[in-house]
Amino acid sequence: MTRTLITGGLVITAAEEMHADVLVENGRVEAVATPGSQQWTADRVIDASQKYVIPGGVDAHTHMELPFGGTFASDTFETGTKAAAWGGTTTIIDFAVQSKGAALRSGLDAWHAKADGNCAIDYAFHMIVSDVNDSTLKEMDGLVAEGVTSFKLFMAYPGVFYSDDGQILRAMQRAGDNGGLIMMHAENGIAIDVLVQQALARGETDPRYHGEVRKALLEAEATHRAIKLAQVAGAPLYVVHVSAQEALTELARARHDGLPVFGETCPQYLFLSTDNLAEPDFGGAKYVCSTPLRPREHQAALWRGLRTNDLQVVSTDHCPFCFSGQKELGRGDFSKIPNGMPGVENRMDLLHQAVIDGHISRRRWIEIACATPARMFGLYPKKGTIAPGCDADIVIYDPHAEQTISAATHHMNVDYSAYEGTQVTGRVETVLSRGELVITDREFTGHAGHGAYTPRGTCQYLH
Ligand code: URP
Ligand code: ZN
Ligand code: ZN
Ligand code: ZN
Predict the structure, then answer these.
(1) The domain containing residue 248 runs over which residues?
(2) Is the whole model's pTM more than 0.95, yes or no?
(3) What Gene3D superfamilies does this protein map onto (predicted)?
(4) 63 lines ligand 1 (CB under 6 A)
(5) Distance, CA 391 to ligand 4 centroid (Å)?
(6) Does ligand 1 lie within 6 Å of residue 339's CB atom?
(7) Euclidean distance between CA atoms 457 and 185, whole angstroms
(8) C-alpha pair distances (Å), 330 with each of 195, 283, 405
(9) Of 15, 64, 166, 358, whose CB neighbour count within 10 A is largest?
């Protein structure tokens, strides 16, 4: 077994920063020590001086190969996890999908069939529940026991993934009993569908109307309702892809009242806005996702929420569709544009830029991108930190390198970048996944099939 020594870097975890040498053996961190203090021998020495040594990113929200909007998300588990590695992410939690009328089990089996043997980094699953009924509720217990400990429900997308309030309440009650965590897509989809039809009837077909009909108030209303339902059920709640200031206000109020309510936002809501949705020549379609991008004013509230811990996690909601042939399905009708944006490769860099810009501290960067997502979804301390015994998922990060984000150089299987031309300071140099070099000095040295399915424990903020 290879022994790897990483010397002279600044090790950053959510808890501390220290100049230290890190010894890796048998895929795990063996020891962390003051630089030069130990006479360690190793087969491989990585010089990390002038660099950061950080835990691999944990992206708790991706959709590889998702069938959605009449097509499939364009990254496979292979292309998407390779791109994730390039961007310094070493674990993804993707969403297996229950088809209406089918069992959770068959959805989970189908997602294993897509992912197993194909991932370059480690992966785990949440379960999208699109049909809450007696047998699904029973199945949830078994899934929690085997390591699928979180369930996404939708207040949006009537006729597709939508659950009504009674179904949501029942699923929450079950999660309250079995230790599962309900993840909520909080938008009032019934009201939004009325506004969609009214907009189309007025001839408002451009991508920017996607942002206008999916109102911030309807995100806030659904967030409020989800919180109250969870309170009634006695269950914890994790609200995904929070984009509206008004929704964040609902979360903050619940948290200040001491409720076990958590919130995630995504880089697109922190860095992009309705200005992008208004780009000409149907260009706004590249930015169609739900919840939608908001006017720029919402960004300051989201950054504040990340600093005050009213928001705890930044995930990507990576769900790429090519502009050509996929986003184009919605020319002349914004409601037919497949919802979702690429970003799994960009998250760690964009959040490092946020450190440089003064929005968050270095340790908070690691907390929201690595440690907290691992804890939230029962993967800590195996994932999300650098300490003896944890998986050697480690990124050597050059905080001074300059790069320009572009589709011409990214590795995601999608024909545009949502951040095209954005200059960021900081770049991933080398990535280890369980001690194996996946990226070596900006060369891909990993392989599909290295990534292991990783069953999870329950949310670690509840006990
Ligand atoms: O637009 C999005 N977010 N697409 C992916 C599915 C979801 O709702 O997370
Ligand atoms: Zn969603
Ligand atoms: Zn999603
Ligand atoms: Zn391998």
Answers:
(1) 57-376
(2) yes
(3) Metal-dependent hydrolases, Urease, subunit C, domain 1
(4) yes
(5) 14
(6) yes
(7) 22
(8) 17, 11, 26
(9) 64
Ligand 1 atom closest to the Cα of residue 154 is: 8
Residue 102 included in any domain = yes
Number of domains within the chain: 1
Q: ipTM, 2 decimals? A: 0.96
- Find the 341 Cα to ligand 3 centroid distance in Å: 9
Nearest CA to ligand 1 atom 9: 317
pLDDT in tens, 378-436: 999 999 999 999 999 999 999 999 999 999 999 999 999 999 999 999 999 999 999 99
Q: Is the CB of 383 under 6 A from ligand 1?
A: no
Residue 17 lies in a domain: no
* Pairing label, strands 52-55, 17-25: unpaired
Contact 290 CB / ligand 1 (< 6 Å): yes
Q: In angstroms, what is the span from residue 19 Cα to ligand 1's centroid?
A: 40
Ligand 1 centroid distance, CA of 44 (Å)? 42
CATH number, position 230 = 3.20.20.140
Amino acid at 286: K
